[in-house]
Amino acid sequence: MYIPSAFNVEGFERLARFIDENSFGIVVTHADGAPFATHVPLLLDREGGAPGKLLGHLARANPQWRHLEGGSEAMVIFHGAHAYISPRFYTAKVAVPTWNYLAVHAYGIPRIIEDARFLEQVLERTIAKYEAGSAQPWQNNLPEDYKQAMLGAIVGFEVGLTRLEGKFKLGQNRSQPDLNGVYAALSQSASVDDRRMAEIMKAEHLIG
Protein backbone atom coordinates (compact mmCIF):
# COMPACT_ATOMS: atom_id res chain seq x y z
CA MET A 1 0.00 0.00 0.00
CA TYR A 2 1.31 3.45 -0.89
CA ILE A 3 1.64 5.38 2.38
CA PRO A 4 2.99 8.94 2.39
CA SER A 5 4.77 9.63 5.67
CA ALA A 6 2.08 12.07 6.86
CA PHE A 7 -0.51 9.27 6.82
CA ASN A 8 1.61 6.39 8.14
CA VAL A 9 0.35 4.69 11.31
CA GLU A 10 2.56 2.31 13.28
CA GLY A 11 2.39 0.43 16.57
CA PHE A 12 0.90 -3.02 17.00
CA GLU A 13 -1.66 -2.10 19.65
CA ARG A 14 -3.03 0.79 17.62
CA LEU A 15 -3.32 -1.28 14.45
CA ALA A 16 -4.70 -4.26 16.37
CA ARG A 17 -7.42 -2.08 17.87
CA PHE A 18 -8.36 -0.90 14.38
CA ILE A 19 -8.64 -4.52 13.20
CA ASP A 20 -10.80 -5.41 16.20
CA GLU A 21 -13.11 -2.46 15.48
CA ASN A 22 -13.25 -3.09 11.69
CA SER A 23 -12.98 -6.87 11.63
CA PHE A 24 -14.94 -7.63 8.45
CA GLY A 25 -11.91 -8.03 6.19
CA ILE A 26 -11.02 -8.95 2.62
CA VAL A 27 -8.73 -11.97 2.26
CA VAL A 28 -6.69 -11.68 -0.94
CA THR A 29 -4.77 -14.62 -2.41
CA HIS A 30 -3.29 -15.43 -5.79
CA ALA A 31 -3.86 -18.57 -7.84
CA ASP A 32 -3.66 -19.56 -11.49
CA GLY A 33 -2.22 -16.19 -12.45
CA ALA A 34 -5.06 -14.13 -10.98
CA PRO A 35 -5.98 -12.52 -7.64
CA PHE A 36 -8.92 -13.87 -5.65
CA ALA A 37 -10.71 -12.14 -2.77
CA THR A 38 -13.28 -13.11 -0.13
CA HIS A 39 -15.08 -10.81 2.31
CA VAL A 40 -15.18 -12.50 5.72
CA PRO A 41 -15.28 -11.73 9.47
CA LEU A 42 -11.95 -12.33 11.19
CA LEU A 43 -10.62 -12.51 14.73
CA LEU A 44 -7.20 -11.20 15.75
CA ASP A 45 -5.59 -13.70 18.13
CA ARG A 46 -2.89 -12.05 20.27
CA GLU A 47 -2.06 -15.08 22.43
CA GLY A 48 1.26 -15.72 20.70
CA GLY A 49 2.30 -12.06 20.95
CA ALA A 50 2.61 -9.43 18.24
CA PRO A 51 1.80 -9.42 15.39
CA GLY A 52 -0.55 -12.31 16.17
CA LYS A 53 -2.79 -14.45 13.97
CA LEU A 54 -6.03 -13.91 12.11
CA LEU A 55 -8.62 -16.65 12.57
CA GLY A 56 -11.58 -17.27 10.30
CA HIS A 57 -13.52 -19.67 8.16
CA LEU A 58 -14.57 -20.05 4.53
CA ALA A 59 -17.33 -21.96 2.82
CA ARG A 60 -15.99 -25.32 1.67
CA ALA A 61 -17.55 -24.53 -1.72
CA ASN A 62 -15.31 -21.45 -1.97
CA PRO A 63 -12.19 -22.45 -3.95
CA GLN A 64 -10.07 -19.92 -2.06
CA TRP A 65 -9.54 -22.26 0.86
CA ARG A 66 -7.32 -24.39 -1.36
CA HIS A 67 -5.18 -21.29 -2.07
CA LEU A 68 -4.41 -21.19 1.66
CA GLU A 69 -2.68 -24.58 1.57
CA GLY A 70 0.28 -23.63 -0.61
CA GLY A 71 2.36 -21.61 1.88
CA SER A 72 2.20 -18.41 -0.17
CA GLU A 73 1.71 -15.05 1.53
CA ALA A 74 -1.83 -13.67 1.73
CA MET A 75 -2.98 -10.10 2.25
CA VAL A 76 -6.00 -9.12 4.36
CA ILE A 77 -7.54 -5.65 3.99
CA PHE A 78 -9.42 -3.93 6.80
CA HIS A 79 -11.08 -0.59 6.07
CA GLY A 80 -12.79 1.94 8.27
CA ALA A 81 -14.65 5.20 7.74
CA HIS A 82 -14.09 7.21 4.56
CA ALA A 83 -15.33 10.49 3.11
CA TYR A 84 -15.16 12.63 -0.02
CA ILE A 85 -13.37 15.92 0.69
CA SER A 86 -14.43 18.89 -1.44
CA PRO A 87 -12.19 21.92 -2.06
CA ARG A 88 -15.19 23.90 -0.78
CA PHE A 89 -14.20 22.82 2.73
CA TYR A 90 -10.78 24.50 2.56
CA THR A 91 -9.70 28.06 3.16
CA ALA A 92 -7.00 27.54 0.51
CA LYS A 93 -7.95 29.20 -2.77
CA VAL A 94 -6.44 26.53 -5.04
CA ALA A 95 -7.11 22.86 -4.23
CA VAL A 96 -8.50 19.67 -5.72
CA PRO A 97 -10.99 17.10 -4.38
CA THR A 98 -9.68 14.07 -2.52
CA TRP A 99 -10.88 11.14 -0.45
CA ASN A 100 -9.95 10.60 3.19
CA TYR A 101 -10.00 7.10 4.68
CA LEU A 102 -8.54 4.66 7.18
CA ALA A 103 -7.15 1.25 6.22
CA VAL A 104 -4.91 -1.48 7.58
CA HIS A 105 -3.29 -4.18 5.47
CA ALA A 106 -2.18 -7.38 7.17
CA TYR A 107 0.23 -9.85 5.57
CA GLY A 108 1.02 -13.39 6.58
CA ILE A 109 1.24 -17.07 5.78
CA PRO A 110 -2.15 -18.82 5.88
CA ARG A 111 -2.89 -22.42 6.64
CA ILE A 112 -5.98 -24.58 6.74
CA ILE A 113 -6.66 -26.25 10.08
CA GLU A 114 -8.59 -29.52 9.77
CA ASP A 115 -9.52 -29.74 13.42
CA ALA A 116 -13.17 -29.80 14.45
CA ARG A 117 -12.56 -28.27 17.87
CA PHE A 118 -10.53 -25.39 16.39
CA LEU A 119 -13.35 -24.62 13.98
CA GLU A 120 -15.97 -24.73 16.73
CA GLN A 121 -13.89 -22.39 18.89
CA VAL A 122 -13.47 -19.91 16.03
CA LEU A 123 -17.22 -19.91 15.44
CA GLU A 124 -17.99 -19.56 19.15
CA ARG A 125 -15.61 -16.62 19.51
CA THR A 126 -16.93 -14.97 16.35
CA ILE A 127 -20.54 -15.31 17.47
CA ALA A 128 -19.68 -14.00 20.96
CA LYS A 129 -17.95 -10.95 19.46
CA TYR A 130 -20.83 -9.90 17.25
CA GLU A 131 -23.62 -10.83 19.66
CA ALA A 132 -21.97 -8.93 22.52
CA GLY A 133 -23.94 -5.73 21.97
CA SER A 134 -27.33 -7.44 22.08
CA ALA A 135 -29.57 -7.43 25.16
CA GLN A 136 -30.53 -11.00 24.31
CA PRO A 137 -27.58 -12.58 22.46
CA TRP A 138 -28.20 -15.65 20.35
CA GLN A 139 -27.20 -18.75 22.33
CA ASN A 140 -26.04 -20.99 19.46
CA ASN A 141 -28.25 -23.81 20.71
CA LEU A 142 -28.72 -25.55 17.37
CA PRO A 143 -29.79 -29.20 17.02
CA GLU A 144 -26.64 -31.31 16.96
CA ASP A 145 -27.28 -32.88 13.54
CA TYR A 146 -27.90 -29.47 11.97
CA LYS A 147 -24.79 -28.05 13.65
CA GLN A 148 -22.58 -30.86 12.36
CA ALA A 149 -23.95 -30.43 8.84
CA MET A 150 -23.13 -26.71 8.95
CA LEU A 151 -19.64 -27.39 10.30
CA GLY A 152 -19.04 -29.79 7.44
CA ALA A 153 -19.81 -27.04 4.96
CA ILE A 154 -17.02 -24.70 6.15
CA VAL A 155 -13.24 -24.77 6.54
CA GLY A 156 -11.24 -23.12 9.33
CA PHE A 157 -8.01 -21.23 8.74
CA GLU A 158 -5.45 -18.99 10.37
CA VAL A 159 -3.06 -16.41 8.96
CA GLY A 160 0.19 -16.13 10.90
CA LEU A 161 0.91 -12.43 10.52
CA THR A 162 4.32 -11.20 9.44
CA ARG A 163 3.61 -7.46 9.19
CA LEU A 164 0.91 -4.80 9.42
CA GLU A 165 0.60 -1.54 7.46
CA GLY A 166 -1.62 1.31 8.57
CA LYS A 167 -2.77 4.37 6.65
CA PHE A 168 -4.99 7.04 8.23
CA LYS A 169 -5.47 9.69 5.54
CA LEU A 170 -7.17 12.48 7.46
CA GLY A 171 -5.71 15.61 5.87
CA GLN A 172 -2.61 15.75 8.07
CA ASN A 173 -0.78 17.44 5.18
CA ARG A 174 -3.22 20.40 5.17
CA SER A 175 -3.06 23.66 7.11
CA GLN A 176 -4.91 24.01 10.40
CA PRO A 177 -7.57 26.30 8.87
CA ASP A 178 -8.16 23.70 6.13
CA LEU A 179 -8.46 20.91 8.70
CA ASN A 180 -10.92 22.96 10.73
CA GLY A 181 -12.97 23.60 7.57
CA VAL A 182 -13.08 19.89 6.72
CA TYR A 183 -14.13 19.04 10.26
CA ALA A 184 -16.90 21.64 10.25
CA ALA A 185 -18.29 20.37 6.93
CA LEU A 186 -18.12 16.67 7.81
CA SER A 187 -19.56 17.10 11.31
CA GLN A 188 -22.63 18.84 9.85
CA SER A 189 -23.13 16.34 7.01
CA ALA A 190 -26.19 14.10 6.70
CA SER A 191 -23.85 11.17 5.98
CA VAL A 192 -23.05 8.85 8.89
CA ASP A 193 -19.62 8.13 7.38
CA ASP A 194 -18.86 11.85 7.11
CA ARG A 195 -19.77 12.45 10.73
CA ARG A 196 -17.73 9.44 11.80
CA MET A 197 -14.71 10.87 9.96
CA ALA A 198 -15.18 14.16 11.80
CA GLU A 199 -15.18 12.27 15.12
CA ILE A 200 -11.97 10.48 14.14
CA MET A 201 -10.27 13.76 13.17
CA LYS A 202 -11.10 15.12 16.61
CA ALA A 203 -9.95 11.93 18.35
CA GLU A 204 -6.64 12.16 16.44
CA HIS A 205 -6.17 15.73 17.77
CA LEU A 206 -6.24 17.33 14.32
CA ILE A 207 -8.73 20.06 15.21
CA GLY A 208 -7.35 23.30 16.62
What does this structure look like?
- The protein is α+β, with helices and mostly antiparallel strands.
- The protein has one domain (5-173): Pnp Oxidase, Chain A (Roll), CATH 2.30.110.10.
- It is built from six helices and eight strands, in the order E-H-E-E-E-E-H-E-E-H-H-E-H-H.
- The protein has helices at 12-21, 64-67, 116-131, 144-152, 176-187, 192-203; strands spanning 8-9, 24-31, 34-41, 43-45, 53-59, 74-85, 98-113, 154-169.
- Strands 1, 2, 3, 4, 5, 6, 7 and 8 form an eight-stranded antiparallel β-sheet that branches.
- Strand 2 (24-31) and strand 3 (34-41) form a beta hairpin.
- The longest helix is centred in the middle third of the chain and has 16 residues, at 116-131.
Features:
single chain; 208 residues; Pnp Oxidase, Chain A; 6 helices; 8 strands; 30% helix; 35% strand
CATH class: Mainly Beta
What is the SS-derived class?
alpha+beta
Structural domain count: 1
What's the tally of helices?
6
What is the terminal-to-terminal distance? 30 Å
Mean pLDDT metric: 94
* The CATH homology group name: Electron Transport, Fmn-binding Protein, Chain A
Low-confidence stretches: none
Biggest sheet descriptor:
8 strands, antiparallel
List the SSEs and their pairings:
Layout: E1 8-9, H1 12-21, E2 24-31, E3 34-41, E4 43-45, E5 53-59, H2 64-67, E6 74-85, E7 98-113, H3 116-131, H4 144-152, E8 154-169, H5 176-187, H6 192-203
Antiparallel strand pairs: 1-8, 2-3, 2-6, 4-5, 5-8, 6-7, 7-8
